[in-house]
Structures are given as C-alpha cells and as structure tokens.
Amino acid sequence: MGTPSVNPRHWTLVGGPAGDEVALLLSEDDETGLRVAWFGEWSGGAQAAPIHHPRRQRWGARLDAASPSAMWSGEGGAPISAPALQYQREGGGWTFVPRRIEVRVPDAQRLEVVQTDDAAALVLVISFHLDAATGVLEVASRLSNPGTDGVTVGWCAAVELPLPYWADHLLDHAGDWCAEFQRETRPLGAAGLLREVREGRSGHAHPAVLVFGDGVPGALGGRVLGMQLAWSGNHRERVDRRPDGTDVAQLGMLPLGNELKLAAGASWQSPPAFCAVSRQGLDGLAARFSAACRSRVLPPSGQRWPRPVHLNTWEALYFDHDMDRLEALAREAAALGVERFVLDDGWFLGRRDDGRALGDWSADPKRYPDGLGPLIDTVRGLGMRFGLWVEPEMISEDSELYRAQPHWVRGEPGRPALFGRKQRVLDLGQAQVCDHLFAVLSDLLEAHPIDYLKWDHNRVLTESAGAGGPGHLAQVAGLYDLLDRLRSAHPQVEIESCASGGGRVDWGMLARCHRLWSSDSNDPVVRARIMAGASLFAPPEVLGVHVGPARAHTTGRVTDVDFRAAVALLGHFGLELDLLELDVAERQRLGAHVQRYKRLRDLLHSGRHATPVFDEDHLVRIVTAPDRSRAVAIVLRLDDRRPGLPVRFTLTDLDPALAYRLTLSEPLPEADRRPAMLVGAGDFEPPGMVVGGAWLASAGLTLQLPAPQSAVVLELQACG
Ligand code: DGJ
Q1: Are residues 352 and 417 in the same domain?
Q2: What are phi and psi of 277, to 5 degrees?
Q3: Angle, CA 406 vertex, CA 400 and CA 407 arms, to 5°
Q4: How many angstroms separate the Cα of 258 from the Cα of each of 468, 472, 689?
C-alpha cells in the first residue's frame, strides 16, 4: 500500500449494457494533479465509486513535482511526455502548464475539463461523453486564445487516453489502393508509435484508428481498446510509453505548417474521437462501434432502410458510354431486381478518359444529346432509382472550368503543378469555389430526379492552397460545409463517399454520407479480407460491396457467382459487371442471389455482426437479429493453404435456451460445392435440422467447404 494521496477527488462516467459496462474515471489530488485515471472495463455497475489513487513515484530521474494537470499535457509540464498540445505564440511562448483547472459535470454522461494557463493565455477544454447505451466514449478538445496576439497550433490531440495496464499489443491497419484495412498485429514495444498521414484525406495507407489488445487481439474473447477519429484529413496517431508506466495514446487531426492559427480571441474545436473497450474481443468492439455509429453518427435513419440493390456502371463500361448499351444494361438490371442504377464516371462534357473534363458537370452532348433526362426516365420507368458519379473537389486542366477559373486550383506560385490521375485539386478554402460547386450540383439535382450521388476523390493533396499556406484544414472544412449544404438543400438525396475505393473511410464522412465505397477491388477474396478489417469500425450496411465480373479486373482471379454474391452479403450488396455478357444460367443465378440479399438485408443490416473466424483460408461472418430469433452465417473458403481443413466456429449471440432450425440458404450451392459435412451436432441433413442455441454457442459447427473460393450461407431460425 502506498501513502495516501493528498485530498483526492474523482469523477466517474459509466455506460454500456448492464453487465458489460465501461467507465471513464478522472482523478485529481493536490500532489499529482488531474488526469484520466482509467478508461476501460468496469465491474462497479452504474455506480460511481471511490478509486485507488496511488502517489506519484519519486524515485528515478524525475522532476520533483507534477504539473497540476497531466491531461493533454503541453510542453514545459511534468511529467515530460509526448505533448498533446504544441503551439507557438507570435509574441513568444510555447509552453502550456495550466494552473487553473475546473471539472464541470453537465449531466450524468458528460464531463468537461477546463484548463487555463494564464501565463500562456490559453484555455483548453476537453469534453467527454460516455454514451449510456453503447458505452462508446466521444472525446474532443477545444482551444481558445484569450490573449492579445495570435498563436500557431502545431498539434492539439482530439483525445489522449491512458492505456489500460493490459494493453500490450497493437492491431494496426495499413493498406493501399485495392488493399485497404489490412491487419497487422505486433507487441507494443518500448518505443511506442508515431504515425502521421499527410494525404489530405484519411487515406489508404493508414486509417485514423488505433486498436490495442491484451495479447494478440482475438475475435471472440479478450480485452481490446479501439479508438477512431471522425476526421477526413491529415491525422496523427501516437502511443507514448512512459517510463513510469502511465502509457498514453493520442489521436488527432494534423495541422501542417502554419495552417492552424488562432487569432487573439479565437477558438478552435477538434474533430471528435470515438473510443470503445470490450471484454469480448474484436467482435465485441465491432458491436460497440456499430451500435454507436448507427445511433449517433449516421445521417437520420429514415432514408437508410432497406439498402437498395445497386448496379454501378464502372466495371461494365468504364468511359465507354453508349445510350443503347446503357438502356440495355438498365433493362437487364431491372429484370434482375436491381433497385438503384448508378451512372459512374464518363457521362460529362468530353470525358473520354481520365485526362479531361473534371469540373464540367453537364452531360456530354455527343453521348447524351438530350441530356441525362432520357436515361433517367428509362431507369425510373423500369422502377429503379437513379444515381450519378461526381468528383466535385477535382479539376482537369483540360476543362471549361479550368480555362475559366485557373486560380481556383490548389498549387504554389513558382512551382510546377503536381498531378495525380492527371488531375488537380480545387481549393475549397475559397468560398466562391464552394459556392460554385454547390450551385452546379444543386442545379443537377433540381433539373433531374437524381436520388444518389457517388462522390469520388481520386488523388492525394500535396500542394499548398496558393501562397498562403497548406490549406489542408480549410479543404476539409470546405468539403464538410459543402456536403452539409447540399444535404440540407436536397434531403432526399443519398451520398456515397469514395476515394479511389476506400481512401476516405472515416466517421467524419459517415456523419454526412450514407455509404462508403470500401475498395476498388471487386476480387471477392481480396474484398472479403478488406471487409474483415473495415467492419471493425463501421456497420456492414454502410460499406459497399459489389458482385464484380467472373474474372476480377484488378487481379485476374476467376471465381463463380455464388462465391462473389456471398462476399457481397458482407456489406451493402451491389452489382458491378456487364450484365449483357452473362449467359442465361449465370443471369438466373445472379437474380436468385439478388433475391436472397433482399430477403436477408433487414437482418444483415440491423443485427449484431461477428467474425469468429478470419484466417488465411476462411472467413466466417455471423449476423444475429437483435431479438435473437434469427441468424445468418456466411462461411467463405478464401484459400486452401491448408487443403481440406474444415472450419469450426461458434454462434455466441444466439439464445442458449432456444433451439434453432438450420437450413442452407437458397440458392443452394451447386451439388459439388456444398459443405461436405456439418459435424458435432450430426451430419447436415437438408432441408433442416434443429440444434440447441447452447450447443451452437459452445461446441459450434464444423463445416468442410470443398474448394477455395467457395461459400455457404446458413440460415438459423428459432423454433422453440
Ligand atoms: C475510383 C472509384 O473508386 C471507382 O469506383 C470509379 O468510380 C472510378 N474512380 C471512376 O473514375
């Protein structure tokens, strides 16, 4: 037992379902100051309780006294650690050691910590909101400058949390175009982590997320902590391993150069970070993030249900738009049960390839002599809704817009322009640029019954916005404002966010959009792996997955339609292939898969999803209805690195007191692609057998799928 601390005070927020609560504890005493003492699992029920408040260790080469606050510490305080606030004041001054600290309690689920450093003339307010229902913690910081001159902020974390003592592994997510959300686990070494993403968007390479495990994070069990930043621009993740064991993780948006300036009297609000812990491994973490995303982040739910079957024209046509072909494609799509027809890139003024016309958002008169109206009429006449691809933030030098407004483009005077996909970036920091985009897009949406925009973003930001500075923050602010204006002017229109696939998958976009295009890889093996990673952070109904052509355009891998369609059940199901090339049997089969998706989508998109198996060879996704009366198991054999090895899994979200009837979902796999056995509870006997929920949760199922790239979908229905 250490010596009692001096005058301890504490504050507690508790949230999450009964029996699975989490808590945020703030503690303060006269010696060690204020700090976040704990964010993690909590056994104390909803009741706040006094906490153990150990004294500061004095041994070792440490400073004699701690600063009054060890939260979001700045330069110049103690203990010395990675500062969560870095700034430079014009008249001098760069340290932040607040002496006046106030903890406010707006309500039972919120705390606000107001830290004032009079010498620095800065006030930092940190707000915590622990959601009672989900236990997900939302944290943001707000910095104000009551001083008489300006400050340039180099870094102000949205969140800094102490790592729980058990967090000794990092589950990282890295990726690239067509390879988003690849997982990598490693021990959290003594060096910690400092990572910065400077793509001008959340990015393919490293989404703004951190996941820690008690050992290697597993799907079903074990303690995990996840953090994600709701921000679509540059970001920084930092893990600081302190010698005294008070390790912290920080997450925040990353200002470049001098772009985050606070004039005298000004304030700045960070984007929020969302943090969750689970005792039930990655599936528990995914469940918490999904629930919070559904209830607190997504645009109002009215428009979201049920998620319509898409046809996207990209891999069917690329830039080769032809009215007869498009109409034939639309007819075929409608016959298959497609509900939304999305016209991708290639429809606008002179757009024959990716080298021209971005910025000219009017129909190409050669391909669409009467505008988009006739095609939209055809699509709607066939009973489908119409969606349109745009890439508003970008501009081609070969465009009417560039010729008229060359100064609207980002770039530094005196330096050669940098191109990505042959295009440049509009400066959304200029109000007239955003006004122009709003007017053009609004006109399109008013002129035609367009229900959906696919909003793309196909290059990274590199250059400054003119001579004034990087302008990356202003770019994201301009984007958010534009999206918000469009959504309020056209509330019936849904928006899909895309950035060369999954280059902007984050909750900043999700707060404004209805769907994220998770990757350009329609190779089902690659896509299934991407979905396993991405589904940790967002619910499946917002992550688009399409049935692509038999031979995947990005990898050349050939797979059958049953497998591709089963993979598309992992998210928001769509089609992206040339339906006119399919033979009759393939068309019928695809139609049957569309029907299955429609039959299952309410469950797939409202249930609790779990991924009990994700290894080199298999991926198993289970979705269980909130009332536990139904479940679906999507069992995918991705590879055969260990040929013949069966896959075993449990269904832990079912009601152990109930029995469930298991059926192979229609359309049945071809006879030679059916699972060879379902052992444990007896061999599988279509049309159905009855197994207890307790058995399924404990002993589970064993299936042997015959071949790589085969799939089986099981449906479970409670029957007493
Ligand atoms: C990149 C997207 O990810 C694709 O789906 C497609 O829309 C192309 N851009 C069009 O240029």
Answers
A1: yes
A2: -125, 155
A3: 145
A4: 9, 11, 66
Confidence at residue 1, expressed as pLDDT on a 0 to 100 scale: 41
Which ligand 1 atom sits nearest the alpha carbon of residue 517?
Answer: 3
Report whether pLDDT(139) > 80. yes
**60 occurs within a structural domain:** no
Q: Which atom of ligand 1 is nearest to the CA of 421?
A: 11
Q: Total structural domains in the chain?
A: 3
Cα of 584 vs centre of ligand 1, distance in Å, is 29
Pocket test for ligand 1, best of 314, 351, 459, 546 (most atoms within 8 A of CB): 314
Which residue, judged by its Cα, is nearest atom 1 of ligand 1?
500
φ, ψ (nearest 5 deg) of residue 139: -130, 140
Structure tokens given for 601: 């989508």
**Residue 480 in 3-state DSSP?**
helix
Confidence of residue 302 (pLDDT cuts 50, 70, 90): very low
To the query of whether residue 360 is one of the catalytic residues in this protein, the response is no
Q: Is the model's pTM score more than 0.90?
A: yes
CATH number assigned to the domain comprising residue 235: 2.70.98.60
User: Does 280 share its domain with 399?
Assistant: no
Closest CA to 568 of 708, 386, 705, 711: 711
Q: Report which of 445, 338, 324 is spatially closest to residue 382, judged by C-alpha positions.
A: 338
Q: Which of the following is catalytic: 29, 247, 360, 456? A: 456
The tokens describing 269, both together, are: 């609000």
| 426 touches 435 (CB < 8 A) | no
Q: Whose CA is nearest to atom 11 of ligand 1?
A: 345
Instruction: Name the residue range of residue 539's domain.
Output: 301-608
CATH code of the domain containing 463: 3.20.20.70
**C-beta of residue 605 within 8 angstroms of C-beta of residue 583:** no
* d(C-alpha 709, C-alpha 200), whole Å: 36
Length of the chain in terms of residues written: 720
Contact (Cβ atoms closer than 8 angstroms) between residue 372 and residue 345: no
Q: What is the mean pLDDT of residues 555-568?
A: 97
- What is the rounded CA–CA span in Å between residue 305 and residue 293? 15
Tell me which amino acid residue 333 is.
Answer: A
CA–centroid distance, residue 500 to ligand 1 (Å) = 6
Look up tokens 């029996």; give the residue.
19
User: Which 3-state string (H, E, C) describes 327-376?
Assistant: HHHHHHHHHHCCCEEEECCCCECCCCCCCCCCCCCCECCCCCCCCCHHHH
CB of 497 within 6 A of ligand 1: the answer is no
653 is catalytic: no
* Each residue's pLDDT tens digit, 306-317: 999 999 999 999
Ligand 1 pocket residue status of 498, Cβ below 6 Å = yes
**Whether the Cβ atoms of residue 424 and residue 408 lie closer than 8 Å to each other:** no
| pLDDT tens-place string over residues 46-81 | 666 666 666 666 666 677 766 677 788 788 876 677
pLDDT tens profile 669-699: 887 887 766 655 555 655 678 899 999 999 9
Which ligand 1 atom is at minimum distance from the Cα of 354? 11
Expressed in angstroms and rounded, the spacing between residue 395 Cα and the centre of ligand 1 is 15
Question: Does the beta carbon of 548 sit less than 6 angstroms from any atom of ligand 1?
Answer: no
500 lines ligand 1 (CB under 6 A): yes
